[in-house]
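Hi support team,

I submitted a single chain yesterday and got back a structure, but I'm not sure I'm reading the token output correctly. Could someone confirm the output below corresponds to the sequence I sent? I've pasted both exactly as they appear in my results page.

Thanks,
R.
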Amino acid sequence: MLALAGLIQQIVGPRLEAEQETAIRFADLVIHLYAAESAVLRAYKAVLHNGADQEALKVMLAASYIDDAVPEVEAIARKLVADIAEGTLRDDYLSLVCKELQRYVPQGSIARNRAIAEQINQAQQYIC
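Hi R., thanks for writing in. Yes, this is the structure output for that exact sequence:
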């Protein structure tokens, strides 16, 4: 995020106010990252307070959100870089985005999402 903010400042600079598409894309990226961080931290605090067994659903929900958010963040970042940068600079930043986000590998999302649905269905109410 900071690298993209720097790129935007470098290329768009004071014209950002007139570059609404760039501002919107960057805002969307920040929103996804904030929500992901918030989900992880809330689950982490719950586990510290109540234990992993009691808060397994919150951990699964956070992981599920992360699985959905990472590809979305990557797509937004790639579009943002492609829209504002050119040539070697664009290629370098696209490579950076891909390199950083390819390290995340979703694991067992179908089984996890089914387990989440099963717990909520059994409770017949919102339980988190």
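A quick pointer for reading it: The mean pLDDT is 92. Let us know if anything else looks off.

Best,
Support desk
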